[in-house]
Amino acid sequence: MSNQQTVEPTQVVEVETIDSVPEDLESRRRFLAKFGSAVFAGLMAPAVLSKEFTPPVEAAEASPSRRFPDVPVRLPPAIELDEESSVIDRMLADLRRALEKRQRGEKVRFGMAVDLQKCTGCRACTVACKAENVTPPEVSYNVVLEQEVGTYPNVRRVFMYKPCLQCGNPPCTPVCPVGATWKREEDGIVVIDYDKCIGCRYCLTACPYGSRFIDLGKSYTDPLQPYEQIASPEYGENRVRATGQSPVGNARKCHFCLHRIYQGMLPACVETCIGRAIHFGDLDDPESLVSELIAKRPHIRLKEELGTDPSVYYLL
């Protein structure tokens, strides 16, 4: 199920150096016309994965201290765990411990352990995510893959939940020509600055997991119903989608519900999973449930041979 893939040797792609990037949104998008095309992105992605390519603008250089709106960290209630404590209680206790580390200025590494034996393919995670982040058609931060295995009449279906894998070495970030996406050093979550993103889709091409999407401005209803006009809490920015305004035209992706976890809540998909197949926590905390499951259970990571170091583990 790991969908093995081998990276072939590739030539270094020479890229025009960017001297300056227009500031206003429309000018930045027109900037694409002189910079390149989707063909360029297709050439650039394998070069990045082979580690032979030096991008024109590093995300760290473009956004060295980019912070989303500061919201005070809210710790989950302290929970006394015992043998009857639920999986949710355990993960909330783990989250509290991780947020306490963040308050002390220590780094954490958020990740997931997904139990493939428990996923029922109900897709409650996908629906919960769309409702939480108010995502439009063709933008689903997590999906459930399914496959039929066996030989008739002894067949069964297996399901795999797939969010953004929050790679430790993300190939999607260095290809961005304006440094609009980067991996947060403090918690390992890969994020997108909608005010900088120019919608070039290079990151979509570079992602080997198909976990990035482009917001084409589509809607489910016409005229828009109230549920499509509410603000999305993503990144704590509370944006309302409108024609010609971000995030319409931007790349979008899962961010582990960043706005929820720093308010002491689990990601929407984790909280909603009816089979308790999705586990969330600090991978650097040996006492967390995710670390415990990964240590005890056989597991895989998708396409880890590419060197992406994904932060989502699949328990077999």
CATH topology: Alpha-Beta Plaits
The total count of strands amounts to 10
Mean pLDDT, to the nearest integer, reads 84
Structural class: alpha+beta
Largest sheet: spatial strand order: 8-1-10-9
- Major β-sheet, in short? 4 strands, mixed
Radius of gyration: 20 Å
Principal-axes geometry comes out as globular
Query: Quick one: CATH class?
Result: Alpha Beta
Q: How much of the residues is beta strand, in percent?
A: 5-15%
Low confidence ranges:
1-23, 27-65
Short description:
This protein has helices at 25-35, 38-49, 59-62, 87-103, 124-133, 202-206, 258-261, 268-272, 289-296; strands at 110-115, 143-151, 154-162, 181-183, 190-192, 212-214, 251-253, 278-282, 299-300, 312-315. With 316 residues, it is of the alpha+beta class.
Describe the 3D structure.
The protein is an alpha+beta fold and 316 residues long. The protein has one domain: Alpha-Beta Plaits (2-Layer Sandwich), CATH 3.30.70.20. It is 24% helix and 15% strand. It has helices at 25-35, 38-49, 59-62, 87-103, 124-133, 202-206, 258-261, 268-272, 289-296; strands at residues 110-115, 143-151, 154-162, 181-183, 190-192, 212-214, 251-253, 278-282, 299-300, 312-315. Strand 4 and strand 5 form a beta hairpin. It is globular. Residues 1-23 and 27-65 have low confidence and may be disordered.
